[in-house]
Amino acid sequence: MLPLGYLSQLLAPERTTANRAILLAWTVTNGTQAPREMQLRATLATHYGQDSVINAGTGSGKTLPIALNILLDDPQAQGITLTISPLKRLEITQENDFKLRYGIPTIAINEDTPREDKYWHQNMFSLATISSPPSPSLSDSLSSPSTSESSPAPFSTFVPTHS
């Protein structure tokens, strides 16, 4: 269920970004996830350069805002997102979620990570050469790198049609 009340209160640029985030979540998860209000609030805060803190229990959806901000980024910028996890088990879970659920190239780095050059070239440096997410045409239409934040592309240009 989409948080329509929350979405209706947003200004046009934020509402456009929120709608892009909703479409991205729905698309990369094959229709299994749509962000809740808490997740959209955190996603928008980070996207617009504000801090956000989510105090929520295990399995409540704290990973989705991180993934959405990565997916909302301009792929041409080839940015790197660093997520610090306090537990190795959480690192592994997040690495798998980012890779398998959201299609985001990810590597967990901790004291157990091999230090040999071969490992880094096969894992880390190969991630840097990946320039397109799993659905390039969708991602290209949902990202607006050439559009300023004050005048985002109209939402109607990326509403998928159903046959």
From TrEMBL:
User: Which Pfam family, an example, fits this chain?
Assistant: DEAD
Q: Which GO terms describe its molecular function?
A: ATP binding; nucleic acid binding
Highest taxon of the lineage: Eukaryota
Database matches in InterPro entries: DEAD/DEAH_box_helicase_dom (IPR011545), P-loop_NTPase (IPR027417)
* Residues of the DEAD/DEAH-box helicase domain: 37-103
Region span, Disordered:
131-163
What spans are recorded as compositionally biased (Low complexity)?
131-157
Record Gene3D superfamilies = P-loop containing nucleotide triphosphate hydrolases (3.40.50.300)
Q: What is this protein called?
A: DEAD/DEAH-box helicase domain-containing protein
Q: Which organism is it from?
A: Asterophora parasitica
